[in-house]
Amino acid sequence: MSSIRLFILDAFERYGEMHGHQLRLQAEQERISLWTDVSVGALYGAIKRLAADGLLAEVRTEREGNFPERQVYAITSRGREVLHDLHQSTLADIAYRPDPFDLAFARLDPERLDELPRTIQERIDAYEVRLATMRANNERARPYLSLGEDFVISHGEHRLRSEIDWLRDLQANLPAIVADERARPEPDRATP
């Protein structure tokens, strides 16, 4: 799934012909970097790739005042087909990605087990800051959102709260986890 392709094609379908700077302003206005994995800085390169793939077409060059010339693009019929397919596949796709934290936690350093309570508390604190920031941003945005968009931004809040809840459960079980780690025998180290 390509979030950036979906965002760009959808923006051209919704708003019509634009140049890259207009698309960037639209992305900033929608604050997409706060609730998607789309980087605003990557939009220009992605527009060029979509044009090379025949999903966008250059329709004209325009110049406003002292600004440099800008290529204005429009979505093509092939771009609309791909957009439709992206919408369908993205809504159906389950995007579950393992958290690297889990691998690190499954391979704890026996020499640093005493640091775990502090490490886990720092992780909880960082997630709580992120959640508070997200809530504040979402509250500022809510008056301008559709009902569907409101559900989308609240999804991020739910995911962060779930992570915090899981970490608190982990934190409550740390004494047993540390005792279990200390009771484990050293692994055999085969010499190559």
From TrEMBL:
| Listed InterPro entries | Tscrpt_reg_PadR_N, WH-like_DNA-bd_sf, WH_DNA-bd_sf
Highest taxon in the source lineage: Bacteria
Which Pfam families does the entry mention?
PadR
**Annotated Transcription regulator PadR N-terminal domain residues:** 9-84
Concerning SUPFAM superfamilies, the annotation shows: Winged helix' DNA-binding domain (SSF46785)
Protein name, UniProt field = PadR family transcriptional regulator
Q: What is the species listed in this Swiss-Prot or TrEMBL entry?
A: Frondihabitans australicus
